[in-house]
Amino acid sequence: MQQVHKISMLFLCIIGLVTVFSAHESQAAEPAALLGQAQSQAVVGKMAKAYDLTEDAAHILWNRMGLSVSAKLVSKPAQGFGMYEPRPNAVFTSKQKAIIYITPRGYQVQKQSNQYVFGIGLDGAILDASGRPVWEKKGITSRTVASRAFNREFYLCPSLDVSKLPAGKYTLQFTLHDLLTKSSSTVTIPITRK
After folding, report:
1. Is residue 170 within 8 Å of residue 134, measured between CB atoms?
2. How far is Cα 155 from Cα 82, in angstroms, rounded to an integer?
């Protein structure tokens, strides 16, 4: 009798866990199913098909993850996605420009006819030590991109003239806009002007 009671309690706990996780599972069901199919294809040696299925899962996850942005100071303009030279410090003299490598993630990509379309806008500002803008510009760039591939390798590389700023501490602030979803994400980089 006690054994039956333990099994019943265990069964109820499992049902409770399934109920708690079902909301999360339903949201991730498509990518999880695709990844399961990819694993099955890989096991039988069909690597190209497995790769295509993982890409399909990645596309779904990309569009669900929401917009985020990262930015790094670089020594010179990037030559391509991921092809940049990090700047060794954030200290600028009167003869230097700030060059920034910006990578967005999770911007919405929509399939339209036989192309994938996304749109990105960028605003920028330089804030003084108290957080007040000493320079700002809306619409540094605004681009809609159409590609035959689901493009996740996109970057921006603006440069800002910080040479005329008085000596002090500043913050470079960039706000990236997803033109399809109207969402935005902001990133900041502290710098010093000597």
Report:
1. yes
2. 8
